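Give me structure tokens for this 509-residue protein.
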Amino acid sequence: MISYLYLYLYNKQSSYQVKCHVKNKSKRIFIAAFGSETNSFSPLPTTIESFQKNCLIRPGTINWPAIANDGHSEFLNLAQKNGFTAVRGTFAYATPAGPLTKNTYETLRDEIVAQLRSALPVDCILLNLHGAMIADGYDDCEGDFLEKIRQVVGPDIPVGGLLDPHAHLSDRMVKAATILLAYKEYPHTDFAISARKLFKLIDQATTGELKPVMRSVDCKSIGAFPTTSSPMREFVDQYLLRYPSRQIMDCSLIHSFPWGDTKDAGVKILVVTNDDPQLAEDYAKTVADEFLKIRSHATQSLDTIDIAFKAINQEKKYPVIIADTADNAGGGASSDSTFLLEQARLKNIGRTAIGIFWDPGVVDLVYAAGKGSKLKIRLGGKASWFSGTPQDLDVEVLELRDDAKQYFGDGQDRREISLGKCAALRSGNIDIIVSDSRIQVLSPDCFTAFGIRPEEYKLLIVKSSNHFQAAFSEVSKNIYYVATPGALNMDFESIPYQKILRPIWPLDQ
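Here you go.
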């Protein structure tokens, strides 16, 4: 019996129908997740505890939660919906930080590989990866991991990997996988769409309907390229979401992660075709040429701290939003830098809200004091020289919550994210959200969960690079992306790279 599953994939620019051709409903699919975005210049190592703090779920977990993380839950949902047997491997994802310790990487890698070996035989494999994970002794973790997976199942079993576009695409990854596919949007609002597409393509490869071929082209560039504004918006719509041939199955722009110091870093174009290597190569070159034409206009530009604060009083509509781009936990920063808080105190801007600070010691202190208490604290400035000067503050404890959440994305891509053990503090006219967890700001929920109404403030300071933009643009269009010292320094020429291959734009123009 041949059955058909119709999946409808949608984005703001286009909607289209995808048909999964299923020949055998007893199909066994091994599904696992292993990833982190490694910042080579972060002062914080990534350990087993880092995974446990964020997400480390092993097979046999009672009441396995539905994980809405990077498409992983979509794999599980689709397998269940089609009556397939989903053999679950470990789900391991750590908040971005510095390189993994060797023991951490090898332990989790070997654990998942052993689970796969025990699960044999399987018809295909779906892996929720990141693509920019680096460990002590392993500059290409995903390449190594995929090779180990391939060694277990042999050359014929389809292996699909879902990537973050901030991956470092390596030849080892392309050779070991059957299909690699990255999200198309930055901010990443298309998790579910991307997961469904990969599920469909791997299913077709399993039945023999599709013979995937991958080719990539190196654009020899680094940078940050948000897709919400021109010219990247038009580039994504024209080349990544629409293709000139039905034989082109997917095209991904691999942005790379410019704070990962590895020879595989750099923007690449990855194309998947149906048994047509020449078409894959030609289209990858075409798209690469188009990217090179726009890259200097597409990269994110930042204001200085002085420019941003001078502009605040010139604005006619409030709140003004300042993004502390270099202290974004989502890119491996410590989220305890005080540069913008210090300026807000000096300038006495008016009602200001700032978040999310990472300071477990302060959280413990104010929880011990209790809601409504007034006390002295020393906030931030603790992790490294990136963190600035600790701020000595007289604060009132406005609210204490360990169940607060923020939400990211819309529809089926909507994700619920815990804010950890948090406190809302008031120091003069500045309200501050502090957590025991490193969490980037994604939506106004991180303020409203504590009774802070963003529209009533003159200035909002968010520790985030770009993912906050979609939700906060509904609060205010007056957004300043500010260059601060930190682990996500956008002055690439000042970054002490050791391994990145040269020449590369914009370092070598």
